[in-house]
């Protein structure tokens, strides 16, 4: 009995302690939410420098996360989306308190088109006459492309400068599947539809190597052109430097005029103080872009008021970011239900005069893509709709774009990949030989168990599925032909799953113009014949209360995995995606292409 009371007492104490801990955590969490909800503006002192530093992937929109300040509880710190990065650079252009921009060492893990958008915003910023200074201990090619527009580019005297060309890497899973006794049964349309290759090959096919070589050279050519123009260095010389890896030491970068000086950070800060007329003994007035996001514009207007425009004339900015799936999706995936609802709301709102669909997607479910395409086509009938393509708008991402009035892409956007495929696993050997598991069944009809993973497809079943995929491709090329006002035969000739850059896509008629988000918005307003307008964003972002527990646990889990796996975390992500790809017809980009 004595032991019993001990256990009871221990249990009561444990429950009491857990309640207190949860209560304290709740106070912190809700305090963070309330603090964010009543966030005060950040004061910007005179003669300040805006610091830009990008060390995390950049999303299309800033996440709606009022818990960002609670990093000690496992929540991510605030990470601005591309929308707010561009808005803040634009705000700084006319802010009398901001004298210039300091580009600090950045890894720029985001795509090429995202970097292009930021680079163009910085070029526009320089029109104000304000300075941009860049410094890095390590210059990756992406960061250097961004920094090359700066008035002065400085490299640490013992730093590293990368200029070695672009590399595209694909991870192949066939060897692993063979060891497990799993066969990937592929049904596809398109010579270049290489998304299935990692399941059935151990290296690139000749057709895939041809297309990757083509779009990679196009992207690298644009990269060289941009640096050549900003640094006034001959393009062929730049190519030679990369091809021969001429830049091996900081002194090489200085000698070849790729940088303006070799300086330590204290020397760069001293120059920034000089440019802002700050005494060397005083601290530099600097504000990072995350803090600056809550700073008022000149005259005290906040960010919301700055873009107020006319309440009666609105341009809807609808974000379609991530893989395309059925259902609601979330802020990082395109759910056909959620995005269709956003398109309907914009279409039926009389205050919305035009729509810009911002697409950054490798594609996904062909059915979900068609559901979204239908809403785009219906919207086009009643008001202008433009598409602005981000890093990727390929396969299903192109499917949902093709019905728009006009398509804008960056020169280094990845697009096209018009094709359909399906992958069904045959796990018979895995179950039988690896696990010793066997199956038996009774069925009423010949094809009642079609797609069963415990056995291979029969020739008749494969023929049925191939016919369905062929039909899907015919529908895909048909909607593209109608949207682009081309013959279906022509679309098939440039389709076949082939991937193009935005620059290449312009030449073959898959896009209408090379331009950024702002260009698409201006074009939409012009077609709608409105001059004074407000840009409103759709769909509404997820409430932090909706997924509070899931967000917390997911972030902790992700951090633990990333700390253990490091750069290999992307392979884990790739394996997770296999389940979603198999068994469902897909209109998506070649599987996990990595460009370095």
TrEMBL record:
It comes from the Bacteria. It is found in: Membrane. Keywords: Hydrolase, Membrane, Protease, Serine protease, Transmembrane, Transmembrane helix. The chain crosses the membrane at residues 7-34. Residues 291-312 are annotated as: Disordered. Belongs to the peptidase S49 family. NCBIfam families: SppA_67K, SppA_dom. This is Signal peptide peptidase SppA. It comes from Mucilaginibacter roseus. The lineage of its organism: Bacteria, Pseudomonadati, Bacteroidota, Sphingobacteriia, Sphingobacteriales.
């Amino acid at each position: 009995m004595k032991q019993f009371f001990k256990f009871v007492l221990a249990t009561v104490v444990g429950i009491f302690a857990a309640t207190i801990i949860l209560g304290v955590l709740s106070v912190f969490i809700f305090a963070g939410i309330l603090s964010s909800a009543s966030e005060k503006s950040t004061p910007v002192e005179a003669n300040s420098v805006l610091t830009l530093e990008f060390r995390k992937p950049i999303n299309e929109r800033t996440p709606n996360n009022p818990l960002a300040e609670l990093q000690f509880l496992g929540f991510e710190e605030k990470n601005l989306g591309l929308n707010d990065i561009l808005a803040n650079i634009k705000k700084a252009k006319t802010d009398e308190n901001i004298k210039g921009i300091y580009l600090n060492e950045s890894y720029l893990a985001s795509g090429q088109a995202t970097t292009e958008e930021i680079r163009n915003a910085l070029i526009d910023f320089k029109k104000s006459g304000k300075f941009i200074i860049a410094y890095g201990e390590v210059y990756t090619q992406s960061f250097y492309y961004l920094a090359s527009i700066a008035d002065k580019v400085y490299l640490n005297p013992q730093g590293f400068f990368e200029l070695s060309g672009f590399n595209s890497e694909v991870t192949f899973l066939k060897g692993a599947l063979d060891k497990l006794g799993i066969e990937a049964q592929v049904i596809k349309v398109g010579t270049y539809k290489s998304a299935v290759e990692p399941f059935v090959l151990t290296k690139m096919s000749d057709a895939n190597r041809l297309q990757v070589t083509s779009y990679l050279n196009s992207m690298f050519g644009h990269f060289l052109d941009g640096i050549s123009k900003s640094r006034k260095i001959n393009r062929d010389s730049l190519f030679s430097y990369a091809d021969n890896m001429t830049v091996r030491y900081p002194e090489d970068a200085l000698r070849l005029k790729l940088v303006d000086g070799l300086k330590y950070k204290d020397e760069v800060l001293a120059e920034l103080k000089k440019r802002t007329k700050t005494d060397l003994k005083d601290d530099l007035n600097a504000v990072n872009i995350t803090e600056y996001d809550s700073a008022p514009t000149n005259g005290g207007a906040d960010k919301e008021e700055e873009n107020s425009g006319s309440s009666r004339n609105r341009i809807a900015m609808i974000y379609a970011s991530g893989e395309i799936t059925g259902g609601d999706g979330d802020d990082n995936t395109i759910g056909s239900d959620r995005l269709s609802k956003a398109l309907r709301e914009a279409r039926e709102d009389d205050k919305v005069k035009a729509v810009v669909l911002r697409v950054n997607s490798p594609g996904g479910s062909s059915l979900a893509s068609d559901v979204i395409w239908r809403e785009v086509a219906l919207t086009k009938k009643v008001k202008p709709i433009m598409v602005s393509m981000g890093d990727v708008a390929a396969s299903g991402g192109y499917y949902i774009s093709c019905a728009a009035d006009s398509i804008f892409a960056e020169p280094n956007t990845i697009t096209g990949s018009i094709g359909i495929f399906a992958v069904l696993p045959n796990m018979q050997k895995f179950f039988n030989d690896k696990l010793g598991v066997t199956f038996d069944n009774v069925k009423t009809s010949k094809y009642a168990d079609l797609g069963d993973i415990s056995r291979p497809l029969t020739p008749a079943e494969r023929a049925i599925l191939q016919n369905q995929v062929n039909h899907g491709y015919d529908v895909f090329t048909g909607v593209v032909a109608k949207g682009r006002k081309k013959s279906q035969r022509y679309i098939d000739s440039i389709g076949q799953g082939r991937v193009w850059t935005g620059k290449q896509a312009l030449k073959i008629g898959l896009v209408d113009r090379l331009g950024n988000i702002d260009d698409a918005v201006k074009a939409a307003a012009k077609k709608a014949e409105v001059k004074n307008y407000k840009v409103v964003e759709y769909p509404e972002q997820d409430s932090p209360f909706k997924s509070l527990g899931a967000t917390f646990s997911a972030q902790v889990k992700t951090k633990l995995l990333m700390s253990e796996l490091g750069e290999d975390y992307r392979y884990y992500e790739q394996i997770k995606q296999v389940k979603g790809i198999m068994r469902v017809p897909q209109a998506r980009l070649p599987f996990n292409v990595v460009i370095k």
